[in-house]
Amino acid sequence: MTTSQLVGIIRRLEAMLEDTESEVQVRRFEKEGNERCIITYDTKTETFELLETSTQQVYQFDDVDLVAMEIFEVLQD
Asked: How many CA atoms lie within 13 A of 69 on its CB side?
């Protein structure tokens, strides 16, 4: 049995929440070497921003679970 992809996504997002030294953090999520989305976390506003690289659409989230689900869906496309 393989590990959950969603667990890995949440761990990366939680690492962003735990790093209080950086004001803004960025993570890139790829599938098979193709960048699917870029996540930015702003510690001042405590919000995530998701940039879907294929469409250049931007979404904002204030809940780690919601952004994790959106990343998961983007990676499934």
From this structure: 5
pTM: 0.90
Q: Contact, 74 vs 36, CB < 8 A?
A: yes
Q: Do residues 71 and 9 make contact, with C-beta atoms less than 8 angstroms apart? A: yes
Rounded Cα gap, residues 14 and 28, in angstroms: 14
Contact 22, 43 (CB under 8 A): yes
Residue-wise pLDDT for 24-71, tens only, equals 999 999 999 999 999 999 999 999 999 999 999 999 999 999 999 999
- Specify whether the backbone of 41 is left (phi greater than 0), alpha (psi in -120 to 50) or beta: beta
